[in-house]
Design goal:
alpha/beta; 3-stranded mixed sheet; 19% strand; binds sulfoquinovose-uridine-C1,5'-diphosphate; 7-stranded parallel sheet
């Protein structure tokens, strides 16, 4: 199977590329280096530098003899997207320059993924809207025009649902109204403009499914944590990008870094905000199972991609417990919440579909968190305290 990974340079994209390559798939990755450029522009700091995509692909080839083809290009331009499907492709790196053929599966990570970034000001809101919607739309049309049978696996977010006072279903809800019944997308109510673009992506692809019988799986993912996957350890240079700053860092990764540099854990508001979390290795498993078990033609299949739920307070307590065992004096500080979100709310999402496909969850235990501490500690001298909190306000 030929798997095309859009956004293949990112925190999840690069580990996904290596994972599929290792499992024998033909892999092509495309990326415009958005994340690297944004990190430089906003001076957010990273735990360590990572080589360019062609360099990483070369290192991967030297270790495994497997080729990951690389296209560095901006998928907001329809011609760049279309070249991935019509063979007019310009590889930035390939051992064999011959076009692999249309992909059977496309994994779509090529999005601006940060809620705070989308709300820095109107300019960053525009970048987020333009990138996320144009890339998704360009993908939809390229698949419609050149690869109708391709399976699109789009990364959505649990944040599309917000925090409703009813149980969250996996994407769809049956509604009875005035004696008649129908099935609709579960109500969405995003808490940031980034999350709003994810709702709009879902709507775009749902349109494509209804009009042109596309095959789409939408993975509603929670915040991901972790730094190591089965492949990243093969060589120092294969590590994934790791952010701990307010803009691009997700909460568990941030808390571990904060504990290590004696920075009081930044709990926003009351800390009762509850979300569904997953280990980066489970992202790989979920995307793999989704690829192996395609959606049908004309189906928008939705899975809630989380393995367990935690409140911010529970995560802070766990970080303190594990940190103290390692000799850190971990403090917890409740900051005025820069975001507009419920801090004490009902949260009961369903998440069974991926387990039914065969995903085996890795849970966040003290041992798992301790292993993350051990890796992050190696880069302690790179950690910049000044980027941990800047207070992007909603
Ligand atoms: N939070 C804190 N302190 C911090 C950082 C975050 O209390 O220092 C709180 C936030 O207020 C929020 C929760 O922790 O209630 C999660 O925040 P986050 O920054 O880890 O995650 P979020 O902004 O929701 O976005 C992340 C990814 C995004 C993905 C999303 C899944 O950046 O790409 O879509 O998680 S979800 O949260 O389910 O929408």
């Amino acid at each position: 199977m030929h798997v095309l990974i859009l956004g293949g340079d990112g925190y999840l994209g690069w580990p996904t590329a290596m994972f599929f390559s290792k499992h024998g798939y033909d892999v092509t990755v495309a990326d415009n280096y958005f994340r690297r450029h944004a990190c430089t522009e906003l001076d957010v700091g990273m735990l360590y530098a990572v080589p360019t995509l062609p360099e990483r692909a070369q290192v991967w080839y030297e270790h495994t003899g497997r080729e990951i083809k690389v296209v560095v290009g901006d998928l907001q331009y329809p011609e760049v997207m279309r070249s991935l499907f019509n063979g007019q492709i310009e590889y930035s790196y390939a051992i064999n320059k011959k076009y692999t053929g249309v992909p059977e599966t496309v994994v779509h990570y090529a999005e601006q993924p940060s809620a705070p970034y989308s709300l820095i000001n109107y300019k960053y809101a525009n970048i987020t809207l333009a990138n996320n919607l144009l890339v998704t739309n360009n993908l939809m049309f390229a698949v419609r025009d050149f690869a109708r049978d391709a399976h699109i696996i789009k990364l959505g977010t649990m944040g599309e649902y917000g925090t409703p006072a009813i149980d969250i279903e996996e994407g769809w809800i049956d509604i009875e109204h005035k004696g008649r019944r129908d099935r609709f997308l579960f109500p969405r109510q995003a808490g940031s403009l980034y999350h709003t673009t994810k709702i709009m992506d879902t709507d775009l692809l749902w349109f494509g499914v209804r009009m042109w019988d596309l095959r789409v799986t939408d993975l509603m993912q929670g915040p991901v944590y972790g730094i190591k996957t089965g492949e990243t350890g093969l060589d120092e240079r294969l590590k994934t990008i790791f952010n701990y700053d307010e803009i691009f860092g997700t909460i568990i990764n941030r808390f571990i870094v904060q504990a290590i540099v004696d920075y009081p854990l930044t709990v926003y508001g009351k800390g009762g905000q509850t979300r569904g979390y997953l280990n980066i290795n489970d992202t790989l498993q979920c995307v793999h199972q989704a690829a192996e078990n395609s959606a049908e033609k004309g189906e928008l299949r939705i899975f809630n991609q989380i393995m367990e739920t935690f409140s911010v307070n529970e995560l802070a307590e766990m970080t303190r417990r594990v940190g103290e065992k390692r000799g850190y004096k971990v403090k917890i500080k409740h900051l005025e919440n820069p975001r507009k979100e419920a801090e004490d709310h009902y949260y009961n999402p369903t998440y069974q579909g991926l387990i039914d496909l065969g995903v085996k969850p890795h849970y966040l235990t003290d041992t798992v968190m301790q292993e993350m501490f051990e890796v992050v500690e190696q880069y302690k001298s790179n950690i910049r305290k000044d980027v941990i909190f800047r207070g992007v306000k909603w």
